[in-house]
Protein 1
Amino acid sequence: MEPVERFLIVGLGNPGPGYAKTRHNAGFMVLDRLAEAEGLVFREKNDALLAEWDRGWLMKPLTYMNLSGRAVAPSVRKKGIPLDRLLVVHDDMDLPLGRIRLKRGGSSGGQRGVASIIEALGEAGFDRLRIGIGRPPPGVDPVRYVLSPFTPEERRTLERVLEAATEAVRVWKEEGLSAAQSRFNGLKI
């Protein structure tokens, strides 16, 4: 049996209680749920909260969203993480609430945390788990929208989305990207 490759799963968000329930913190929410289910404990190290999981790690950068690469790139290099074993979990306005999508590589799609990671790594060939948050209503500034909390009605859908996303991360870890894509990319919650 071949040894399992090391992996790093990064949830994007902003640190602090003021951001905890905002749309931009969907990545943190997925990792928090996963850590709780697996009995993992986050510990602060350098610019991130890290939790060990099997031969890999969960990471929540503490650099704020737009500087996420500052925490991610040094860990990828130091821990020797292959790009195809790096998964970044983040919010995405181009997907409606209730949808998740896994993909490898490509542009940041305007997500500044992902853009920061691409810039810091000098490569874009890592995997992403995009958590749909939908577009802001007409006249609402997108920055203000992503930093606002989910409404009570949205939270009911979000709970099911977080469950599905947590399972998608497990499938990605155990079976790889293709298996996770075939199971979760068409899912509508």
Protein 2
Amino acid sequence: MTASFLLIVQIVLVVMLVIAVLLQKSSSIGLGAYSGSNESVFGAKGPASFLAKTTFTIGFLFVVNTLALGYVYSSAAAESVVDNIVEKTNIAAPAAIIPVATKIEAPAIAAPSVQEQNNSTEANSTTQK
């Protein structure tokens, strides 16, 4: 439940961070042109210092939440499914099966005997004549 809550917070922080960055004044103005007369809302200096502080705060929360998510997911990944099953059923895990090495002999190929060689050469000579 903690991981899903942190993931939802992460998505909300991402959306807020994108909006805060896009509202800031830049060379191309960005979405700040659509904010209207926000000088009176944010004070005499305008939204520059307020949005800068907001962006920094949201960015800091984003980094902290990302580290928390990484910790939660890495600790959850340390446990395997087999470990959870063994703990629930109280069955001992099977020992590792080590194969026994067996000696495999290659089939013996006998060389032809001298008599077989003589017979084959005589057969070849009679067919050639």
Protein 3
Amino acid sequence: MRCPFCGHLEDKVIDSRSGGVGDVIRRRRECEGCSKRFTTYERVEDVLPTVVKKDGRREPYDRQKLLRGLRIACNKRPVSTDQVESTADGIERMLQDAEGREVTSAELGERVMRRLRELDEVAYVRFASVYRSFRDLDEFLAELGKLVKAKGP
């Protein structure tokens, strides 16, 4: 494993433990070149569906793209990195359990929004505002109204 600090290729594993629901192994490593420590995650590479974009293009599913979107939505919110990772893991499990080998970007976006709505309402609204690309304030307020109405008194 290449050290993220100095690029040295030799390291030693200091600690290993199961993460999430047992589908990830978290390893603490120490670089033998600079002695700095870093964490790696090991997971089974699953066959995930292809994402069909609105314009018909097909892209392989990209976990990093999903995580980037979740992190941006949850930025400066009381949501931990573990919660973001767990949310991504849950979405991936749903994708693996899906029947087909393809999923539309619209369906994927809706799944992300459902998860974010449960996790943090502000993160949900942030993600929805980009994902649904509201054209004006009225559309944005209508979405907020739905959120408030669903929450109830």
